[in-house]
Amino acid sequence: MNSFSPGRGFSTPAACRRVSPTRRANLIRKATPIRKATPIRKATPIRKVTPIRKVTPILHAAGIAVAAMSAGLVPYPVFACATCGCTLSSDAAMGYSASAGWRLNFESDYLHQDQLRSGTRAAAGVPDGTELERETVNRYLTLGVSYSPDSAWNINLLVPYVERTHSTYGEFDSTQPLPPLSSSRSSSLGDIKLIGSYQGLLPTHNLGLQLGVKLPTGKYGTAVEFSAGPNAAMPLDASLQPGSGSTDIILGAYYYQAISQDFDFIVNGQFQSAVKHHMDQPGNDYRPGNSATVSLGLRYESSPRWVPQLQLNLLQKSRDQGALADVQSTAGSVAYVSPGVTARVLPQVHVYGFAQVPVYSNLYGTQLFPRWTVSFGASYAF
Q1: Nearest alpha-carbon partner for 15 in 363, 369, 370, 288
Q2: CATH H-level superfamily of 10-381
Q3: Three-class DSSP category at 165
Q4: Which residues sit opposite 208 in a β-bridge?
């Protein structure tokens, strides 16, 4: 689904200071108001980084997208968190394909951020005067619809639904007992992506370029508020909202190749950057940081029914910007190892499941980070 994307993300991520809910509220008051893959040998099949912070939900998304790609030559976008998040490539999980037709894809991603990390290490706590967060739980449900009129062109629509719970103790003071938790819960439409792919550069159709856009269809800015605790009725951080409020451009490329009788190799990458943001008033502005994801995948194609595979998902995210941004704790680099399997349950139906385990993280500030993530999906080509 395109996901470091989640307490946004992905787990897109130190002892840096953030905008407290009280200060943010004051700033706001002052501001102006499948497509069907042909069973070629094996013509390789391939594929929503989101949020930590929080590793923002953008980084996470990056990993998830990689897994979806493996379902059919139909490239799917990646979803991410600030610096955490799912970075799986669903295109790689399903396998890229050069067949014409339609494909429906449904993916579910689960990301639980409950570990404080700063730099490359786990953090025992946060400095006085900074926010002490407890956890962020993200569930992404993504519907993908793709169409390929011929072997060279494909267009893919990704519609995410974001469920997120978040809890925090607020500003930390080592001389005082911990205050009661403030918590929030939201379920709503996220930001929709539309991505076009062209893979007619080579006669083998195994090299593709992507150009897409992310639209500000999800709630953003201060739309979602804390529902319980001392911060009740105060707005949630901008990086934890279901949407970013920005229109982003997406650039990507992918390549897949059989490297032996039974093994296929896949590599893909995407870059995402906001080109326009709705929250642009002085004192009430927010722009999500740029993100870049790269996924390397190896698929074992000995059986037409079961395809074990392994991915390496890399995510790099820059800092969010603006008065409502947590400038110090929304950037970083993350690497995940993602084992999984794709199975053909019917001639036109495939399912897949992946687990992501972080093997490296270098996060700015102190961010909530996931210990693992899981993704499941199903694809129908017609």
Answers
A1: 363
A2: monomeric porin ompg (2.40.160.40)
A3: strand
A4: 254
